[in-house]
Specification:
Layout lengths: L3 E4 L2 E4 L4 E7 L8 E7 L6 E7 L4 E3 L7 E6 L4 E6 L8 E10 L5 E5 L3 E6 L1
Parallel strand pairs: 2-11
Antiparallel strand pairs: 1-3, 3-8, 4-5, 4-9, 5-6, 7-8, 9-10, 9-11
Length: about 120
């Protein structure tokens, strides 16, 4: 298992930038997939950005070209750099770790979330 703690959220003007951090309690090197989700009031939780241990990344269409997911294995930390923020990016952002159990199953682990509010 792994514990995840997000930080870096806040209030920012449209067009501004924020960098979110997700600190993990252990090495993230062997975790199958690390990702950032977000959930706005009345909306389903959606995957914003993710990377796999194999180095693949993917992004939601709504953020592609503006957001970048990165990692620092030495610090057990995943980042989400958010540029050109829009009001519709306002949400609680959650760090996610997906860990397989070796039986074709997986478990998701979540941070507590950090609020990002973009004013227009």
């Amino acid at each position: 298992q792994v514990q995840l703690v997000e930080s870096g959220g806040g209030l920012v003007q449209a067009g501004g930038s924020l960098r979110l951090s997700c600190a993990a309690s252990r090495s993230i090197f062997s975790i199958g997939r690390m990702g950032w989700y977000r959930q706005a009031p009345g909306q389903q939780r959606e995957l914003v950005a993710a990377y796999t241990s194999g180095g693949s990344t993917n992004y939601a269409d709504s953020v592609r070209g503006r957001f970048t997911i990165s990692r620092d294995n030495a610090k057990n930390t995943v980042y989400l750099q958010m540029n050109s923020l829009k009001a519709e990016d306002t949400a609680v952002y959650l760090c996610n770790a997906r860990i397989t159990d070796g039986r074709s199953r997986y478990s998701d682990y979540w941070g507590q979330g950090t609020q990002v509010t973009v004013s227009s």
